[in-house]
Amino acid sequence: MRSGFVAVAGRPNVGKSTLVNALCGDKVAITSNVPNTTRRRIFGVANGPDWQLVLADLPGFQRPMDALTERMQHTVDSSFEDLDVVLLVLSARDRIGAGDRYVARRVFGLGIPVIIALNKIDNLKLGHVASQMKTAATLGDFHALHPVSAVTKDGVDELRGDLVHLLPEGPMYFPVDQTTDLTIENRVAEVIREKALHLTRDEVPHAITVVVEEIGDKVVQAFLLVETESQKGILVGKKGAMVREIGQRARPEVEHLVGHPVFLELIVRVRSKWRRDAKMIERLGM
Are 110 and 138 in contact (CB under 8 A)? Predict the structure, then answer.
């Protein structure tokens, strides 16, 4: 039995969560175009006949701006312990620049194998992908470099195979039918937050967090917390249209997670400057 832990590292918005989902074959992490969508470490688990691959989806490397982003960066730093492999994710659509090089210096300095995934190659010209691969190859002494598309799954099987090849012999860390370490409450909260991120813009997505209050036989109740009354007004929408749309989009996935039909009750509340409140962030489990 091969098993082990792989940290999925990279700067914000390179598609780490989408790639983790593709490698696991299940939606274990929410995705959006909003930078810093991932706020906590999430374990995604992929299983084979004689292997178990545990992928740690991490927040993107960033300079802390408040208590929330400070906690996120601490999560990244503390996750580089007891690892077997690092998966360094780059975006083929963006210039490989200073941010990528900073992350590369960190991960190549760990002294463990590094595999590079050049993500988002779908719909790009082969010449452009080749040029980006050449640049990526200068980042460090990597074990392998894979061009992939997490969206279309191109190259994902080959990438997974290389990751498994580097795992040591070990036990199963999670039951074979478990694909993430998140609780059902956290998974429901993240689905609701994902739909809110898709429907809002500017500062509002960064100010949203979700707390699930109750998961019952008939009702799931959750609070959407924002920092200002104006953000609350946007999230509620005219005559409740926005929060109703969030609920309509989230409910099918919520019902799939809880295993039965539910009424999804969403309540928007203001928690002023919650992102700057370390104690609040601790209570929210981030």
Answer: no
Q: Rounded to two decimals, what is the model's pTM? A: 0.89
DSSP-assigned letters across all residues of 219-273 = EEEEEEEESSHHHHHHHH-GGGHHHHHHHHHHHHHHHHHHTS--EEEEEEEE-TT
More confident residue, 145 or 75: 145
Q: Which of 78, 76, 141, 136 is nearest to 112 (CA)?
A: 141
Q: Where are the alpha helices (DSSP H) in 109-223?
A: 126-136, 156-165, 184-199, 204-207
What is the dihedral sign for C-alpha 170, 16, 120, 199?
positive
- Dist CA 193 CA 30 (whole Å): 8
Question: What span, in angstroms and rounded, lies between the C-alpha atoms of 39 and 72?
Answer: 6
Q: Cβ atoms within 10 A of the Cβ of 231, count?
A: 22
Assign residue 122 a region (left: φ > 0; alpha: ψ between -120 and 50; beta: otherwise). beta
Dmax (CA) of the chain: 58
